[in-house]
Write a structure and sequence with these properties.
single chain; 516 residues; elongated
Length: 516
């Protein structure tokens, strides 16, 4: 049976992630690279993370400790040290660089980078035809060796573990930072990522582990004239999910772990640079053996993985459905343009207005009031509980609020203390009747952060800016009003000097006002 375009369509339908590779840990994907790497370390006898031959394990620096509390993945207790932290950040780096796992648009650009396909051990645009298999594996191998060279593994007999480099990454709450990490461990993580991808982006003979064919992503994703025979079989999303209990997936993970063990053994069981180079070359030779003569015409030597690639299993369907839901949610919450946000707010408020009805009777004048308000944001996850009061004067209201604003992350399920914000409010009513009124509100004040981040001290005081583009107030009784603000925005900025820090939120808020 020859490859058909129907198989390509099935592959695309089964595709369960916007990026290609064994998955890295996120809200909707499994910790595949992380678990394979840790399994290899344990199997090679490196203890909880790295071997005694590399020297005494140092303590985390203050910035590293704060970053360890803020990374967008689970950091197990045994990995709370500089070498482990750098290794895990490195093994995730190929897929996300300095982006959060939820930044879908940015991740698409990473994986559609024609010059970066080798870091995922998959075909480049120039790797065409049967010769493209060898060329793609050679590029992947060169990437692995280049990362080990950059990490100092081939520089001196005793690997320098005390040399750091600045690594750009995105933390859950701090955002993008440059963090100094041990070079040897960070680069090893990047090398291991590519090595492990050599088992999810290929067809391999399960009996011999020989590569029968290397897949293609870049031409499939970016070229109109994509052709399987020339460009290679398309990336198979279901292969990336190590959580599947399919026998093919179980074997794929096992073989990837074995290859990682082989590389780790070669790195630390060599006394000199020359021995280390030779041992690494032998390990990579064993990993990238090619079974000749496998093409689309013979179904890649009748690869059993081809049958697995051609169908969707239940777990892949669930993953795709989950991804779609999350992408839709992120698409709504990650609106970057203020005017677009105003349009959404106006439409939302319009629905509320239509449900109440337009009534033009004058609303009674009210003076002092107290208010309680609750709000939530998903874009930059946050909750808010506020109390305050003010005075109504005609079309205007002046008041003040104090709120507690704890934060949460969708990339790494965690809740932190966030900030306390105190601010004055100025509200303008645009329309008022016995049934409802429409308003806009401006908020300005101070913000105090309640926990530490990289480069940000607990207790720092900065400014707070926020408001509501368009809200609605609905009388519930003579003294009590319901206030809805679907377009509430809040920007606590507890650090305004040095490297400024702010945490922008697009909220939906609701509150009660009591008048007397």
């Amino acid at each position: 049976m020859h490859c058909r375009w129907g198989l390509v369509i099935a592959t695309v339908v089964c595709w369960a992630a916007p990026a290609h590779a064994f998955q890295i840990e996120s809200t909707i994907t499994g910790a595949c690279h992380e678990s394979i790497t840790f399994a290899a370390l344990e199997a090679e006898g490196w203890g909880s993370i790295l071997p005694p031959p590399l020297g005494e394990l140092p303590a985390l620096s203050e910035d590293q400790r704060r970053a360890a509390d803020d990374v967008p993945f689970r950091l197990v207790a045994g990995a709370r040290n500089p070498w482990a932290l750098a290794l895990l950040i490195g093994v995730r780096s190929n897929d996300i660089r300095d982006n959060a796992p939820s930044e879908i648009a940015s991740l698409v650009h990473i994986h559609n980078d024609p010059g970066d396909q080798a870091s995922h051990c998959i075909r480049r645009q120039e790797d065409d035809g049967p010769a493209g298999d060898a060329a793609a594996l050679a590029a992947c191998r060169a990437f692995i060796e280049g990362e080990l060279q950059a990490g100092g593994w081939f520089t001196s007999d005793a690997v320098a573990t005390n040399i750091d480099e600045d690594v750009a990454l995105a933390l859950s709450f701090r955002g993008r930072v440059a963090l100094r990490l041990p070079r040897f461990s960070y680069r090893l993580g990047r090398a291991l990522h590519a090595l492990e991808d050599g088992y999810t982006h290929v067809f391999r003979n399960p009996a011999t582990d020989a590569v029968q064919h290397v897949h293609n992503w870049i031409d499939m994703a970016t070229e109109d004239g994509y052709d399987i025979a020339r460009d290679g079989y398309p990336h198979v999303g279901v292969f990336d999910d190590c959580r599947r209990d399919h026998p093919g997936e179980v074997g794929r993970v096992k073989r990837a772990t074995t290859a990682a063990v082989r590389l780790l053994h070669a790195l630390v069981n060599s006394s000199t640079v020359a021995e280390r180079r030779t041992a690494v070359a032998a390990a990579l030779d064993a990993t990238f053996v090619i079974e000749p003569g496998c093409t689309a015409a013979n179904d890649y030597c009748n690869s059993p993985e081809l049958g697995e690639a051609g169908g969707c299993d239940a777990s892949a369907g669930r993953s795709a459905a989950t991804l779609l839901a999350v992408v839709l949610a992120l698409g709504v919450t990650r609106i970057r343009r203020r005017w677009r946000g105003a349009t959404v707010a106006a439409l939302t408020t319009g629905v509320l207005v239509s449900s109440v009805g337009l009534v033009t009777t004058a609303h009674a004048q009210r003076a002092p009031f107290v208010e309680g308000r609750l709000g939530a944001a998903l874009d930059k996850g946050g909750l808010a509980a506020a109390v305050g009061g003010g005075i109504d004067r005609g079309k205007w209201s002046v008041g003040g609020m104090v709120e507690w604003n704890p934060w949460f992350s969708i990339d790494n399920p965690a809740v932190v203390a966030g900030t306390v914000n105190a601010y004055g409010t100025l509200m303008r009513r645009w329309y008022r009747s016995d049934k409802f009124s429409l308003h806009s509100r401006l908020e300005l004040g101070a913000s105090v952060i309640l926990f530490r981040l990289v480069g940000v001290e607990r207790g720092n005081i900065g400014f707070y800016f926020g408001g509501s583009i368009l809200g609605i107030k609905i009388p519930l009784s003579r003294c009590l009003d319901l206030v809805l603000d679907p377009s509430h925005f809040a920007v606590p900025a507890p650090q305004v000097t040095g490297f400024p820090f702010y945490y922008r939120q697009y909220r939906i808020s609701a509150g009660l006002q009591w008048h007397w």
